[in-house]
Specification:
Order of helices and strands of chain A: HEHEHEHEHEHEHEHH
Distance between the termini of chain A: 42 Å
Strand content of chain A: 5-15%
Low-confidence stretches of chain A: none
Largest sheet of chain B: 7 strands, parallel
Strand content of chain B: 15-25%
Number of domains of chain B: 1
Mean pLDDT of chain A: 93
CATH topology of chain A: Rossmann fold
Largest interface: A-B, 53 and 53 residues
Helix content of chain B: 40-55%
Helix content of chain A: 40-55%
Strand order of the largest sheet of chain B: 3-2-1-4-5-6-9
Shape of chain A: globular
Radius of gyration of chain B: 18 Å
CATH architecture of chain A: 3-Layer(aba) Sandwich
Oligomer: heterodimer
Order of helices and strands of chain B: EHEHEHEHEHEEEHEHH
Low-confidence stretches of chain B: none
Structural class of chain A: alpha/beta
């Protein structure tokens, strides 16, 4: 299949579209000819993000909804599908980070990250899926994480949510293959986005640095959409070293085990001495 | 480490201990010399299960709590640790299973399974970990499933919760290794337990236990041997599920075809009879 053709004239919704991977996916989808509904909670931020993409004319649209609220998600998705006449693709991308010491996590932190990273995806799928089943076509793309296939230390909350998203999405891929619906799971490693400023256990910290070795977000979006167009299931981006670590962990490879144990040690030292793993 | 010594005189809590893998784990822990608090929601069932193990005397104890209620879990875990003077092992084992066509799943189905299979584990770890950190030792053993490793179709809610338990447990294993706290996650395949009888078809008939299902007592023995080695992921029985998992991870075409075929077969069964195997 021609990658470019896959997105031409497609009606897409992208959640968490204000910034980060969601914004980069929106921009790349627009470049490839799709109509994109940028969805976010904050009307001003959604409008600003759409404004930056205004050269794409009326193919740029906006939706305001809190992804942790079922009624808002349903209204937004059904409204977009009604306006556009159909819904071809849903990118459940909104999410928050959660790298912290487990012993400091409160039950409120757990609730917040499960609502934002798991329930948002359940709600999105639950709302979009009947529309796509009626159409007999559709593609749902959920943003998980490399931490949704390999469990990094000090990310127990985050990893729990992202493993859940991976398991859910992969199950659905098999379940609906013969019904003409497709499911992909994006597993990004460190991508240069504001996620490093948003952890489940605190307010947004705009001073938190994005790591120097983080992968450029626009390149990530290109690779993701190329792989989605191939209807790939799990999409690790960049493909390496994430894929190798995943396979090493599953195989019980001693080097991978040592790598993760070392990461745990380094992060613990950083937390106990500096209060942060950066 | 000698697997049989690992459990001697250890203070253990097992949730979902009335039946199935929880009961088998409790019995095997008792045989290996542990003190076991069998935890369940229904006082009569917990007492009945403990009664069957009464030959182990005062090492058999009971706790009544609903694992979906955080305060009940915390009170039970802290109470047991206070009574026994410490808490060596917590087996977060309680859980439910229900395959279905996704188009028939309600948000209520999601809520129920996430509470029972996921929040119960979070509550358990949250209550036990501070105690274990103070002690400088402890071992938390969570029951996930091979469905926490492989995306078996027509059970995505269950898989979502079990994948989440694997991710949680393994992240914690690395995170607390140097603090002396161990984490294991048991991933059972088809084990001969009452879990099947609870999956009913349209006429309300329970599913028959598959002929190939592994005996629960053998599963408990094998699991506790691996847990004593402080293994992270314990797949039981080890095969064919370990090869299946690794095949899935490397994108093996045979495994891919098997999962696609399983989706087809299960859809036909669910659409015609309301059952999945």
């Amino acid at each position: 299949m021609n990658n470019q053709g896959y997105y031409t004239d497609r009606i897409c919704i992208v959640t968490g579209a204000n910034s980060g991977i969601g914004y980069a996916l929106s921009e790349e989808l627009l470049k490839r000819g799709a109509t994109v509904y940028l969805l976010g909670r904050d009307p001003a931020k959604v409008a600003a993000a759409a404004g930056k993409l205004s050269s794409h004319g009326d193919r740029v649209r906006t939706l305001v909804a809190d992804v942790t609220d079922w009624e808002q998600v349903r209204t937004a998705i059904e409204g977009a599908a009604a306006e556009a006449g159909r819904l071809d693709m849903l990118f459940n991308n909104a999410g928050i980070g959660g790298t912290l010491q487990f012993e400091k996590a409160t039950l409120e932190d757990w609730k917040k990250i499960i609502e934002t990273n798991v329930w948002s995806v359940v709600y999105g799928v639950h709302a979009a899926f009947p529309i796509m089943l009626r159409q007999g076509s559709g593609h749902i793309v959920n943003t998980s994480s490399a931490a949704g296939i390999v469990p990094p230390p000090f990310q127990a909350l985050y990893s729990l949510t992202k493993f859940g998203v991976t398991g859910m999405t992969e199950c659905l891929r098999y379940e609906f293959a013969e019904k003409g619906l497709f499911f992909s799971t994006i597993c990004p490693t460190n991508i240069a986005t504001p996620i490093f400023q948003r952890s489940a256990d605190g307010p947004v910290n705009e001073k938190a640095p994005i790591p120097d070795d983080a992968y450029p977000v626009d390149r990530a979006a290109v690779e993701i959409l190329d792989a989605v167009a191939e209807r790939k299931g799990v999409i690790v981006v960049p493909e390496e070293p994430g894929t190798a670590v995943w396979r090493g962990w599953a195989a019980g490879d001693p080097e991978t085990e040592a790598y993760l144990m070392q990461m745990a040690h380094d992060r613990r030292v950083a937390y106990e001495t500096k209060g942060s793993y950066f | 480490m000698d697997a049989s010594d690992y459990y001697r005189e250890k203070i253990c809590i097992v949730t979902g201990a009335n039946s199935g893998i929880g009961f088998a784990l409790s019995e095997e822990l008792l045989k290996r010399g542990a003190t076991v608090y069998m935890l369940g929601r229904d006082p009569a069932k917990v007492a009945g299960a403990a009664g069957k193990l009464s030959s182990h005397g005062s090492r058999v104890r009971t706790l009544v709590a609903d694992v979906t209620e955080q305060q009940q879990v915390q009170a039970a875990v802290e109470g047991a640790a206070a009574e026994a003077g410490r808490l060596d092992m917590l087996f977060n084992n309680a859980g439910i299973f229900r395959p279905q066509l996704y188009e028939t799943a309600t948000l209520g189905d999601w809520q129920t399974m996430i509470e029972t299979n996921l929040w119960s584990v979070i509550y358990g770890v949250h209550a036990a970990l501070p105690i274990m950190l103070r002690q400088g030792s402890g071992h938390v053993v969570n029951t996930a499933s091979v469905a926490g490793l492989d995306p078996f179709p027509m059970q995505e809610i269950y898989n979502t919760t079990k994948y989440a338990v694997v991710g949680l447990s393994e992240s914690l294993r690395y995170g607390f290794a140097e603090k002396g706290i161990a984490f294991s996650v048991i991933c059972p395949g088809d084990i001969a337990t009452p879990i099947y009888s609870k999956v009913t078809d349209r006429e309300g008939r329970g599913t028959e236990t598959p002929a190939h299902a592994y005996p629960a007592d053998a599963a408990a023995t094998y699991s506790l041997d691996r847990v004593a080695e402080r293994k992270g992921i314990v797949v039981v029985p080890e095969q064919p599920y370990t090869d299946l998992w690794r095949g899935y991870v490397v994108g093996d075409p045979g495994v891919e075809a098997m999962l696609v075929r399983m989706a087809h077969d299960r859809r036909v069964l669910l659409e015609t009879r309301g059952t999945y195997i």
